[in-house]
Model the fold of this input.
Amino acid sequence: MATSLRKPTFNSCPSSSTETDDEGVRGTCEDASICKRFAVSIGYWDDPYIQHLVRLSKERKAPEINRGYFARVHGINQLTKAFLRKTECHCQVINLGAGMDTTFWILKDQDLLPSKYFEVDFPMIVTRKLHSIKFKPLLSKPILELHSEDTFQIDGHMLDSKRYAIIGADLRDLSELEEKLKKCNMNTQLPTLLITECVLVYMTPEQSANLIKWAANSFGTAMFINYEQVNMDDRFGQIMIEHLRRRQCDLAGVETCKSLESQKERLLSNGWETASAMNMMELYSRLPRTEVSRIEALEFLDEMELLEQLMKHYCLCWATRGGSELGLEEITY
Done:
């Protein structure tokens, strides 16, 4: 439905889209959002927008969890900004499984906004985020400021404006995904960055391979960033798997998370030309020393071994296709 006014507003209409049953996976989105909100609240990094999307937990999160999220956010942000600078922001970003992510608003503040920023997630999560956007001026105003036309598309599971779109879709249904992205003016000719954070692991290996292949084949110049588990064959990995299973959340794609090599191989065998990966402890060791000193002063960590054990079971992977004239293959952490 198109809303036509002198200035766009956020009136919505009911949507008939079918909800999925992935309750456990949606629960992990809530958990991650709450962990990020807590870390921000005690000063790990600055994010003035997350408080308008996510409640503050009364339960204090462990220091190793907070440092892990800091490394995760820092690593993805650094790779994202490298892509934006290489393309001079003449590009698009597609965050697959975005949840309550606030990157669009932060990039706007930093004058690093791409030509268009897309978010995709389960319709139920998108509906909740749209509700916050509609009623929180700090979230809605930047979208309105960038939207020069008198109409834009919005319904219960989708918002499309000039520079920002949020879409409710199942990433396992690629025809639906592509149709909805194109409806929101996805441009396959633009250099495109695709981001997944703890998303592929909840899909079967075949489903995630299909998504990765679709991403590689859809854009001539592209980069893919993936953050998720690794080294899941050992005892600590098995404990992580069992913990999630008790919460009715099955890691359907865990077999691809055996090693950094298996992570890279999945990318290379599904259409990507270069692939890199590092575990999060390696990334943590590469963080700017001033930042490490600052965050380690925020709270006491009793056992460094806990942090190392956790961080060695998560990794950051990135892959490129095309873009040699832009130097995309030079991007690294």
